[in-house]
Amino acid sequence: MDFEEVYEKYFKEVNLYLLSLCRDEKLAEEMTQEAFFKALKAIEKFDGSRDIRAWLFTIARNTYFSQYKRAKHENHVTETQETGADVTIVQHLMNEEEAFIVHQFLHSMREPYKEVFSLRTFGELTFEKIGLLFGKSAGWARVSYYRAKKQIIDHMEEVNNERH
Length: 164
Fold this sequence. Notes:
Elements (H helix, E strand, L loop, with lengths): L2 H20 L2 H18 L9 H22 L13 H8 L1 H13 L4 H9 L5 H8 L3 H26 L1
Helix pairs in contact: 1-2, 1-3, 2-3, 3-7, 4-5, 6-8, 7-8
């Protein structure tokens, strides 16, 4: 498969992944272009021992982190808004006020929880692929995802207890 075919096949997936991280269409498009440019420069180093999709997502993730660090340095961090896959989280999102609280909490979550949760929820990646992206096991990805979900649920219970 030549690089043009790789670009055609995976551009949309990489773009959607980056969009799920940054929640800004224009920025996601720019980062997608940058990620594919980096991939093109490094394609000769790709030995085929990994899934090319996972390799591209790793480059995209690193591009996102580079952008995030630049933006943070300039104090213009794009707010990351994520939603949950769990029924309890979805119930909270049905209420606009609670949805705002969930989004705020997601934005404040530490890595890798925020990213693993985002990859699973928005990128719809398997735990195996998420583990591969981080150089870890599928079990690690699964545990990280459920810990993130538990943090969100615990936070919402805490907020609800403070209200009553």
